[in-house]
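Sequence only, no structure available. Ideas?
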Amino acid sequence: MLARAGSAVALFALVALVSGATPPAPAARTPLPHVTLFGDSIATAIVDDDPARAILTNGLDVDFEVAPCRRIAQDSCYYNGVRPPTLLDVVKTLGAKLGPTVVVTLGYNEFEDQYAHNIDVALDTFKAAGVQKVLWLTLRAARHPYVTMNDALVAAAATHPSLIVVDWNLYSRSHPDWFQDDGIHLLDGGSKGMATLLRTTLAQLGIGAPAKKGKATPVTIATARLPDAKRSKPYAAKLAAKGGRSPYFWSLPRRLPAGLHLRSTGWVSGVPAGRPGTFAVTIRVRDARGSAATRHLSLRIRP
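Reply:
I predicted one. Tokens follow.
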């Protein structure tokens, strides 16, 4: 009985060999969306934290180009006696290996007066390399220069369509427990928080997540008029948007009257210092998907 069974198996194998039959090939797997992340010592917390890394890499092929002291264009600062390559150096080295989507969490080692220029240079470099989307995190505003630098980042979004500002400063504002004593470097909660913010934003952009059915409502500016301001008196007004996908990021194609400023969160504030009158104001908003809307308003400054 056993001999017969063995003969049957051998005969089946022989027939399969003669007929040329082969086992079906496994179905090809769809490659995961490729994302390149540039970071300094802040982002090393995600790389070194397995749960945080798992959150960000879920459904994505993430290339972590992270090094303490990294700068964008100027020579990086020293770390353990070595200067890491700059962002521009790494882009040049990667070449075609650079992902179509890039995440940047850099700036803490930058010079304040050169940050705006370096942002423009980096975005132009990404564009030349074929990058389609650049998600750039705002800086945790634990020091005053970072406020100005965040404004420069938001302003860059007005002239670079590929740039999507991810407001880490706003997202982390109510979580001081996420940070070390310097208010910048991440503890365990912070690494998971940043990873979650990035993964959620990427999913909202349709990167690494199935597209949702139904037509998306475009973002629009809901604010129809700005309240009057009074010269030399504190002023504050909150802009509003609707549709699209929050969070919203606000910018100005041109400056407000002297003494007034727009934050990326939509607050127009300051102390008007110029002459009284009615001024034309152009406001721009961009949502988390990268779609944008512009509206022309007027602002009256009374004596």
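The two ends are 109 Å apart (CA to CA).
Hope that gets you unstuck.
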